[in-house]
């Protein structure tokens, strides 16, 4: 399993590809067009350059060497010889459901598919394939190379062997996993999405400014970042899509997305990746 396919070159896909390449894997990174992939390579190069400044162990990597282990392509067929695939496409069912039947036909019967999702059912995705026992969820946290733990999700049919093999990959990436069972949102996002959404309601209702909401969580509760900072980091569009999945899955009004969140996403204010969310960020190109 030295070759790993990574589907999707957004924020999470870039982080997963970087982490894998830094760990000695050969990565095949796939997305829809060359422009996205070229941007991904530039960002990986920049992230690796600055990694040593943020890593607690100060381990440094050569950006050119890391990039030499990442092959990019717009054709999904390129991952046909990979025994482990990490899928990071947009958190929308109508996007993901088109990917897995194709992967199922392209890849060997022994290949494992890891769904990097925050909310979508692993069992439901497994049903799109002829290998539900070889499907698991791996919910990576952002920024991927700096987070030591992931949430792993066992679908109804996920085998012990699949969990064990995925655990070996994660160990090589310098990560441990916490295994949970499959229900939409799992543990982290059934709690986190509600928290972020409620924090947005507080801003909409003019109870407090974003910085004051976050300050209460950091200074009173000792959190490393507040819910609105976290939302900006994850991507407010991803927050919205996740809430929509949770609402559809549970039919519970507590998951109803705040109108302010919908308005910000419609305006393209998606957080760090767009340069503007509840806070303003400088882009890589500025």
UniProtKB/TrEMBL annotation:
<protein>
    <submittedName>
        <fullName>3-hydroxybutyryl-CoA dehydrogenase</fullName>
    </submittedName>
</protein>
<feature type="site" description="Important for catalytic activity">
    <location>
        <position position="139"/>
    </location>
</feature>
<feature type="binding site">
    <location>
        <position position="118"/>
    </location>
    <ligand>
        <name>NAD(+)</name>
    </ligand>
</feature>
<dbReference type="GO" id="GO:0006631">
    <property type="term" value="P:fatty acid metabolic process"/>
</dbReference>
<feature type="binding site">
    <location>
        <position position="96"/>
    </location>
    <ligand>
        <name>NAD(+)</name>
    </ligand>
</feature>
<dbReference type="Pfam" id="PF00725">
    <property type="entry name" value="3HCDH"/>
</dbReference>
<dbReference type="GO" id="GO:0016616">
    <property type="term" value="F:oxidoreductase activity, acting on the CH-OH group of donors, NAD or NADP as acceptor"/>
</dbReference>
<dbReference type="InterPro" id="IPR008927">
    <property type="entry name" value="6-PGluconate_DH-like_C_sf"/>
</dbReference>
<dbReference type="InterPro" id="IPR006176">
    <property type="entry name" value="3-OHacyl-CoA_DH_NAD-bd"/>
</dbReference>
<dbReference type="InterPro" id="IPR036291">
    <property type="entry name" value="NAD(P)-bd_dom_sf"/>
</dbReference>
<dbReference type="InterPro" id="IPR013328">
    <property type="entry name" value="6PGD_dom2"/>
</dbReference>
<feature type="binding site">
    <location>
        <position position="91"/>
    </location>
    <ligand>
        <name>NAD(+)</name>
    </ligand>
</feature>
<feature type="domain" description="3-hydroxyacyl-CoA dehydrogenase NAD binding">
    <location>
        <begin position="3"/>
        <end position="182"/>
    </location>
</feature>
<dbReference type="GO" id="GO:0070403">
    <property type="term" value="F:NAD+ binding"/>
</dbReference>
<keyword id="KW-0560">Oxidoreductase</keyword>
<keyword id="KW-0520">NAD</keyword>
<dbReference type="InterPro" id="IPR022694">
    <property type="entry name" value="3-OHacyl-CoA_DH"/>
</dbReference>
<feature type="binding site">
    <location>
        <position position="142"/>
    </location>
    <ligand>
        <name>NAD(+)</name>
    </ligand>
</feature>
<comment type="pathway">
    <text>Lipid metabolism; butanoate metabolism.</text>
</comment>
<feature type="binding site">
    <location>
        <position position="273"/>
    </location>
    <ligand>
        <name>NAD(+)</name>
    </ligand>
</feature>
<dbReference type="Pfam" id="PF02737">
    <property type="entry name" value="3HCDH_N"/>
</dbReference>
<feature type="domain" description="3-hydroxyacyl-CoA dehydrogenase C-terminal">
    <location>
        <begin position="185"/>
        <end position="281"/>
    </location>
</feature>
<dbReference type="InterPro" id="IPR006108">
    <property type="entry name" value="3HC_DH_C"/>
</dbReference>
<feature type="binding site">
    <location>
        <begin position="8"/>
        <end position="13"/>
    </location>
    <ligand>
        <name>NAD(+)</name>
    </ligand>
</feature>
<comment type="similarity">
    <text>Belongs to the 3-hydroxyacyl-CoA dehydrogenase family.</text>
</comment>
<feature type="binding site">
    <location>
        <position position="31"/>
    </location>
    <ligand>
        <name>NAD(+)</name>
    </ligand>
</feature>
């Amino acid at each position: 399993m030295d070759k790993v396919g990574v589907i999707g070159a957004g924020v999470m896909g870039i982080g997963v590809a970087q982490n894998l390449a830094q760990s000695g894997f050969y990565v095949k990174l796939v997305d829809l067009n060359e422009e996205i992939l070229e941007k991904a390579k530039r960002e990986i190069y920049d992230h690796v350059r600055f990694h040593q400044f943020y890593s607690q162990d100060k381990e440094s990597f050569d950006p050119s060497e890391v990039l030499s282990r990442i092959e990019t392509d717009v054709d999904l067929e390129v991952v046909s010889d990979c025994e482990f695939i990490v899928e990071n496409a947009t958190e929308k069912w109508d996007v993901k459901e088109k990917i897995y039947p194709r992967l199922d036909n392209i890849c060997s019967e022994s290949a494992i598919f890891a769904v990097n999702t925050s909310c979508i059912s692993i069992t439901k995705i497994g049903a799109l394939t002829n290998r539900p026992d070889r499907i698991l969820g791996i919910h990576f946290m952002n920024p991927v190379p700096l987070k030591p733990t992931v949430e792993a999700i066992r679908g109804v049919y996920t085998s012990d062997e699949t969990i064990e093999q995925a655990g070996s990959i994660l160990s090589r990436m310098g990560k441990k996993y916490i295994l949970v069972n499959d229900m939409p949102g799992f543990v982290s996002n059934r709690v986190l999405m509600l928290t972020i959404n409620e924090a947005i309601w507080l801003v909409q209702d003019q109870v407090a400014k974003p910085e004051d909401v976050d300050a209460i969580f950091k200074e009173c509760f000792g959190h490393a970042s507040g819910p609105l900072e976290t939302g900006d980091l994850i991507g407010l569009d991803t927050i919205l899509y996740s809430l929509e999945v949770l609402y559809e899955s549970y039919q519970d009004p507590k998951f109803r997305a705040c109108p302010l969140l919908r308005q910000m996403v419609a305006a393209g204010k998606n957080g760090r990746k767009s340069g503007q969310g509840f806070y303003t960020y400088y882009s890589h190109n500025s």
